[in-house]
Request: fold
Amino acid sequence: MARIGYEGGVLHPAGRLPFALTCAALIALGSFASVRLHTVFDKSAVWERDVRGRYQGVLDALPPGGSVLYVYDLPPPEAPRHLQAQYAVAPRLLVEEGPAAAVLAEASSPAGVEAIATRLRLRVARRSPDGRVAVLLP
Amino acid sequence: MTARALLDLGGAALVAAALFRPAGAGRALPLRALLALGLFAALGIPFWLWGLPAGVPAALLACGWLWATRGRPPAPAAPVVPDPFPPHEAAALRALALAAIAVALALFAEHSLRFPDGDWDAWAMWNVKARFLFHGAPRAALSPHLPHADYPLLVPSGVAQLWSLAGSDARKLAALHALLWAALGAGAAAWGAARLRGATTGWLVAGLLASTPWWVVLAWNQYADLPLGACLAASVALLAVAAEQESPDLLPLAGAFAGLGLLAKNEGALAFAGLLLGLLSVRPRARGLAAFGLAAAPFALLFWAGKAATPAQNDLVAAAGWGSLARLVAGERWAVLGQEGWALLRDLRSWGPMLFAAAVAVPLALRAPAARAARPSAVCLITCAAGYLAVLLTTPHDLRWHVQTTLDRLLGQLWPTLALWLALRLAPRPAATARR
Reply:
């Protein structure tokens, strides 16, 4: 068993105070950087703030489980929306092809959703408040 | 659902108590809470995947162990290293660390209110799986339609367990889950530092982690890198104390945390190998090695069974072949990695001064006198870093994209262990341990 205790004030490597002061400075600077990161970099410009909220209005019109066909008309930077949609509508599984009980359509404008419905010859059963997400049924 | 989750919670608490009973770890509150949190999540996995309520047998086993050892006193806790800082300095440094923790908590709370769903990996991988588990479609959580469907389920299971307890999939519980892992992970690293270098050094480690901008970001993003980092730090801290204070009774706990890390992410397999090598580096007795392995075995079995139940194959494994060797030695790929590493080092926005300070501190720490306690963490860090390097160099994806989207999170996994290693090498220490 190692003997615990300080012998002759031996403290390595450069003494107690430089270690403490360096750590203290880093903690202070790090906290400042955290606050700055938090206040300056606002992801709301990039991501939806309320992912589930975007799809909340149409969930009732979807079947409670199983597969849902996801059709979207979004520019490439918004393509990850299908991952957000999957998160919001789970436990329904979003698929991009194959048989499904319903269609979840998403576009950058309400007209885009209408265009998807027309193309698929389906009717809009439920629409989100902003009109950009809809459930399409036969 | 709520009753089963309550049984799992009770089972987790009992198993944690049973594992701690023979260990001379002292109160070790962060470690006890972290183990219970991890076990609570792990006990849910057999239920979600196979309908097996594992909390009941786990509780029975733990009760049997506690009953069988009721007359045996727990191993005496090894002495805590006296604090080298005089009281007034210790109080000032502790206040600074507490202030940093308070700032981190405030930022976490404010950000989680604004972005209640976390960030990319949270809604794309972890919490979406948790929703499948909670809403009774666990097989869909393994669907190849989901990104990284092959990843183990510790984090989704932990979130779904909390939702089961509450009876609702409230988003604030997912944020609370992330906060618990972050806080207890930092607490585990701080516990190791406090135990071996004095209480004030422990507070400084906690303060440094709390004031690392990217550490807080990983927490509010609700990423699984943080639970893996917490398990790694806890296991390394226990290995460090076991090595320096010759307390082999801590090795089962270290094994349990290594096993939990396996269930957190695929990278947990690499971390497990690193921890095993770290343990071997301090030449444990066969009994200690067996105790580490036995404690990790149930989690390894769960990891393997989960993989067997998953139809999706890992993208990196699927692409492995002779071409990987060619990619490994391609000079331009090393150059890309170097460029991105340098860019990350200069990323003061995400990392503040921390990464740069660590880069300066590592050579200083290597020149410091050897410390037996620091050996497991060093071996583990080297193993993980070498593994990450190999995986990134051989990736079948676009290398620059893969590095840019991965490197900071991989570093986040190792961050508390690196902080602990630096503290063990650089913090003031007793002369007796400085010679070892």
In short: Residues 1-14 of chain A have pLDDT under 50 and may be disordered. DSSP finds four helices and five strands in chain A. Chain A touches chain B through 52 residues (CB under 8 Å).
